Amino acid sequence: MNSLVYLWLFLKASLFSTGGTGNLPSLHDDLIVRHWATNREFAESLTIGQISPGPSGLWVISLGYLTNGLTGSLLAVVAIVLPPLLAILVQRIYERIQHHPSVEGFMSGLALSVCGIFIVILSILLKSNGLSIKSLAVAGIAIGFAATKKIPIPAILALAAIAGIGLELA
Amino acid sequence: MTNDPDRAAKVGSIQFKKPTLLIQFVVWSKLGLLSFGGGTATLSLIRRAVVDETGWIEPNEFTRNWALVLMVPGINLLGLTTLIGKKVGGAAGVFVALSGLLLPSVAITILLTALYTKVQHSRYVVAALSGVIPATVGVGLVTGWQIAQPVLTKCLKRGTVPLSVALVLFIGSALIELLVHWPVVAILLLSGALGALTQFAGPPNIGREEP
Lengths: 170, 211
What we know:
The structure holds two protein chains of two kinds.
Chain A: H1 3-15, H2 24-33, H3 39-51, H4 59-81, H5 86-97, H6 101-128, H7 133-147, H8 153-169
Helix pairs in contact in A: 1-2, 1-4, 3-4, 3-6, 7-8
Chain B: H1 7-12, H2 21-34, H3 38-53, H4 59-69, H5 76-119, H6 123-158, H7 160-180, H8 184-198
Helix pairs in contact in B: 2-3, 2-5, 4-5, 6-7, 7-8
């Protein structure tokens, strides 16, 4: 595993996306093909990212640790810190072109595309984790709980953990 | 620092009094430690700290910055932190803001992951994860929908053609990813280019997504 390539893949994923999990599609693409990460590791790191504090998007640090140890997690930190610095540049440019509708069109197109791809990848993660009536039911209930926006996400995951233990070991 | 009664007067009349780097660091690292519960909760906490409690930034400017960082690559909250850090303390302000916000949360994320690798083969952890992973997928699907939904709603209001373009970009990207498997960045850039070309989303609407 070449550290420079590894850093570039994380950085690229972050540079060509926006939001905390927008980098998932690109990273999934690159790391799975190279066998540097498994679907399982993606699912695990997304889960840990949901539990840990701070801005959403720290899941890649967990992915870095699972796939490349402490080095991997530190490279992931570098990769997520650099792109947001472009905010300073964007602020300058934006002051000049903010009224052009193409800017809005570009950003909206990007957002829709990320979401479309995102849904496909989440389905792949669910499938690779073992598709069953139980897992589909848990996913469905989690969708219902999350859609209310009232139940904290760590609470949803804690309930799912209890359900998992109950369904598998009872 | 907090609830300084003279703040309004200071900001309004004389010069905005710049807080020391140490104070900036303390404020940001408190935010990094307290912000359990993901993005939205963190955004509200940051707003309360930098607008209401310290008065480092005016409410309008905060909202404008937030709309702006939605267009910046990477994690939006880090872009916002960068802009506020710069406003308050220049380049050094950016550095203390990002490191203050990230040091505690990154350390906890790494510790959690390390802890997980120690126990991942325990049958209880395996069983728990068999529930948690599908739930994470479910929660992720809702998040994905919440990002797409405002764009789709806006296009629905604008008419049939903008809505059709939006649906083609949304569903088309999913189908290409599923069936053809182009590089993801190519799909994203193509969608962005088509969006810019068709101008389907209409004029910008600064201040949407007001936290």
